[in-house]
Amino acid sequence: MAKIKLITDTASDLPLKQAEENNIELLSFGISLGGESYQEQRDLSKEEFYELMAHSEEMPSTSQITAFTFQEVFQKCYEQGYTDLIYVSINAGGSATNQNAQQARDMLYEEIPEAKTMKIHIIDGENYTMCYGYPVLKGAEMAQNGASVEEIISYIKDWISKIGVYFTPMTLKYVRKSGRLTAAAAFAGDLLGLKPIIRISHGKITTPEKVRGEKNIIPKLTDKIMNVMLPDSPYLIMQGMNSELADKAEEILTQKLGYPPVERVKIGSAVAVNAGYDLVGIAVLEKQD
């Protein structure tokens, strides 16, 4: 009989308590700020990290999850009798963490050949935050309800192939520093009062539109969502330090769609480092061409 365990990392923004309740292994990214190092979700709350960012002149940084850490977790799961591990990672295009997991799998199988009886399935989440955290959560629920590993992997991959997130950072310096926008474009946006709507899907980051004035962000963002969203599908709302824009987005979409988001989540440190601690975002399953 299959014994399946789901694994992900904290850039998924899956809350630690929710992960523990659903038998999900949640691996923390390291965060450095102000000369101190922290393990995401374990040493600081999201709100505490926002405050640190807001009052620090330094730019925070993240450290990837190492192959050694992955190997330790994989070996522990083998010793616990799991037949299948499903690890869903942060976008492989923006982090070496997925590659480290693959390396750890090879190292484990080389050092303990009999561990090959436990299959380690490594999936590129191709995105950030609950865009891949949500299907991990649902996959764990499927495992608890007796779904096969093939059914779970199929569900997760199908979700990842359709999900797109649209978000607007309220300050551009973190996006500029991360390289998500060119310095010139970010500088021009600051001068002109423009905010980008940034889209992430299939591991690629684009800036399809810009919005002038904060009052126009939510109308523009929700109109965009209504145009691209797969009818009657679930959606997620992301926010940072402030909830006002996310509240408005939820109100408008709930009214237009007739149902609320399946999840509303505050972004964590690993995402805030690159996007800033104050943003609003909506993730949807997009219509397919």
Task: Considering the chains and any ligands shown, give keywords for the structure.
Hypothetical Protein Tm841, Chain: A,domain 3, 25% strand, 4-stranded parallel sheet, Rossmann fold, alpha/beta, 2 domains, globular, 11 helices, 42% helix
Concise synopsis of the structure shown:
This protein is of the alpha/beta class and about 290 residues long. Helices cover about 40% and strands about 25% of the residues.
Low-confidence stretches: none
Main beta sheet: 6 strands, mixed
Mean pLDDT: 92
Beta strands, count: 13
What structural class do helix, strand and pairing data support?
Answer: alpha/beta
Strand content: 25-35%
Shape descriptor? globular
Supply the number of helical segments.
11
Fraction of residues in H or I helices: 40-55%
* First and last CA, distance: 39 Å
The CATH architecture of the largest domain: 3-Layer(aba) Sandwich
Number of domains as seen in the coordinates? 2
Radius of gyration computed on alpha carbons: 19 Å
Strand sequence of the main sheet, in spatial order?
10-9-8-13-11-12
Helix/strand order, N-terminal first: EHEEEHEHEHEHHEHHEEHEHEHE
CATH class of the largest domain: Alpha Beta
